[in-house]
Amino acid sequence: xxxxxxxxxxxxxxxxxxxxxxxxxxxxxxxxxxxxxxxxxxxxxxxxxxxxxxxxxxxxxxxxxxxxxxxxxxxxxxxxxxxxxxxxxxxxxxxxxxxxxxxxxxxxxxxxxxxxxxxxxxxxxxx
Length: 127
What we know:
Elements: E1 2-9, E2 12-21, H1 25-36, E3 42-53, H2 55-70, E4 74-78, H3 82-90, E5 98-100, H4 103-126
């Protein structure tokens, strides 16, 4: 089952997807909802709560990217789970669709950068 919550934002729409994007009704739901908002400048698919993505789901993401791009629109994926991100990388779909890391990943990166800065300051103070 796929549930899509729609959130209007300033320059587009965020589609928060929960469940599975697999062959059958799920890919049809995603296609219908995304194309219904194809009048927006940007469509963001939040895939944080997607547990399963199969070949049909990958194909649908590629289809949506092509359709939206040909109409001058932008598709972006945000918050993909580790499994979904791996599939996007294996299929090279991440090279044609903008994929934003999850907020948790961004926070981890910021924490690492902050701790590296503190270590650098500590080293500089020692010398």
